[in-house]
Every structure is written in C-alpha cells, then in structure tokens.
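Run log // design_07
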C-alpha cells in the first residue's frame, strides 16, 4: 500500500498501486448509447421507456417483439443446444414445484442450505420464467405461477431473521419472474402479488435497512434487499392499484449508487474480495443494465467505475478462463 499526500488539502490517503496493464493504457470509454440494428434486447438508455409507459410486460430485459426473433435464433446451432440444456437442467425443479407437499414452507426456508428443494426453486426461477415466456410450456409456466402465488404464505412461513427473510432475499428473483409471466396471471393474482411487493419487498426493506445502509453500502448482505426492491419498483410500475412510490424510487436509486461506490474500486476491482466481491459486482451490473434500459439511471455516465469491472476481473481469471484465482 502506498500513502500519498493530496497537494490541495495536505491530507494523507492510501493508494493501491495500479496493475501494469491498466497503468499503461487509458480506461475504456463507455459504450455508445446506440442500439445494434437487428439485435433484440436493446439496452441503450431509455430503450424501454415506451414499454413502461404503456404498462406492458415483459420489460426488464426484453419486450414482446423480441420473442419472435429469439425463438427464430433458438431454432438451431449453439442456441438450440443451450436451450435444450436449459430445459433438461430445469426439468427436475419444475417437477419438484408441482409435487411439493408444502411449497410455501420450501420457499420460505430456501436459503438455509444450498441443496434444499426451495433453494433450487429460487435459483432456477428466472430461467424457468424466461423459458415459459419463450416457449409457452404449460408445465414450466404453471411452476412459475405456483411460486409467485405462494409469495405471501412463504413470507409467513419463512425464517424471521432480517437479512435472510424471504421478501428481502428472494423478492427480486420473484419480481424478475413476474415480469415474464405477468400476462398469464389472473387479475386477482396480479393484485395480490403487487400488494406483497409494495409492502414486503419495497417498503419493509427500506424500513429495515434505512439510513444504516449507507454505513455499509458495499456489503453483500445489504445489497440483496436493495436490488430486490428496485426490481419490485420496475415491474409494478403502472400496475392498477399501485400507490405513488416516487419517494421510494428516489431513495433506492441513492442506495444503488452508494452500493456501486462502496463495492467497486475506481478501477473496477471489487472492494470486498474476488469471491463475494465479484458476485455483487455482477449483480450491480445486471441491475444497471435494467435501470439503463428503463431510462432510470445510466451507470455508464453516473458511476463509470462499474463499466471497468470486466477489465479488472481478467486479472483474477487463470489461464484458459476455467477458474478464478483464489483469495488469501
């Protein structure tokens, strides 16, 4: 560690020496704010504003017109093999959801161990929802619908600890899944889910973490509920009966920006470590692309350090890209 003195203030601060390859080249410029012609899933800034304004779903990662293009691309080659592998990987999870004796209890205790049925359900939920939207498989769609309609009961049966309670730890995953299958839910099911999101995923999480979030904004345990609340805001925007959440939105965007500055070094390196640190960096980029597409926050311009994560992580990847370098 090198200590340097600021010529303006005379104060001392720590400074990590830069890796040679980054020190000898300029930082990469932000990607141009232009869609690529003919490519679905447009993530340019504000690309989905009209979709949000019209109250349409899906909206987070894709829009309705993308489905035909993606289905065509999955008709052969590597895309078809990847999709086939995804179906096979999810088949057991779909069956376990349909065959669960107490689905709410399974979901509520999902993060007590990695090999629990509920853990596999939550980890596979986004992929199941995307697959249901893309292919319309009634079994997969039914499994996603069951999970979403058990959210309130899962909250009641889940573990009470603040950091691992169901709405804070799994809320974002359910909201992302809701975006894909929303139009297949009944009006009553949508209203129930949106109420759960407002009360448990958004307002309760802000109340729990509140101002204390900014004391440890880069911590992975703090970040999950915040990201889940943002997913909740994005998917229920414009839904009938949803109250004005503009104050919550402003506060959560401040939390998101603080999380980036707390978790990622100016050169793109994770502050925590290269295990959890790289994981939360990926979560922040994932949310950043969704927010950028919605026109809510442009991390390319507002927090450019996050755009350097991809360059920084290359220093952790061992030859041939098969593993990450171990931490101390």
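design_07 sequence
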């Amino acid at each position: 560690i090198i200590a340097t003195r600021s010529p303006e203030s005379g104060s001392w601060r720590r400074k990590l020496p830069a890796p040679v390859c980054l020190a000898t080249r300029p930082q990469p410029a932000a990607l141009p704010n232009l869609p690529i012609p003919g490519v679905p899933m447009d993530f340019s800034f504000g690309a989905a504003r009209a979709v949000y304004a019209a109250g349409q779903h899906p909206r987070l990662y894709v829009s309705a017109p993308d489905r035909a293009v993606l289905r065509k691309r999955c008709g052969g080659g590597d895309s078809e093999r990847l999709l086939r592998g995804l179906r096979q990987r999810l088949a057991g999870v779909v069956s376990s959801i349909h065959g669960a004796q107490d689905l709410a209890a399974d979901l509520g205790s999902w993060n007590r161990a990695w090999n629990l049925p509920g853990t596999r359900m939550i980890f596979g939920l986004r992929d199941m929802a995307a697959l249901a939207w893309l292919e319309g498989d009634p079994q997969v769609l039914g499994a996603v619908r069951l999970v979403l309609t058990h959210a309130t009961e899962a909250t009641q049966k889940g573990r009470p600890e603040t950091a691992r309670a169901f709405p804070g730890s799994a809320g974002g995953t359910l909201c992302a899944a809701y975006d894909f299958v929303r139009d297949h839910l009944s009006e009553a099911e949508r209203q129930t889910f949106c109420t759960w999101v407002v009360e448990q995923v958004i307002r309760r999480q802000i109340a729990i973490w509140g101002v204390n979030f900014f004391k440890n904004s880069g911590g992975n345990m703090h970040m999950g509920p915040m990201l889940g609340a943002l997913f909740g805001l994005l998917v229920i925007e414009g839904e009938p009966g949803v109250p004005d959440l503009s104050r919550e939105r402003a506060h959560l965007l401040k939390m998101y920006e603080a999380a980036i500055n707390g978790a990622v070094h100016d050169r793109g390196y994770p502050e925590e470590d290269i295990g959890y640190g790289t994981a939360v960096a990926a979560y922040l980029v994932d949310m950043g692309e969704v927010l950028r597409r919605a026109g809510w926050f442009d991390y390319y311009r507002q927090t450019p350090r996050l755009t350097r994560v991809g360059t920084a992580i290359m220093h952790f990847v061992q030859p041939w890209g098969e593993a990450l370098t171990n931490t101390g």
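The beta strands are 2-5, 12-15.
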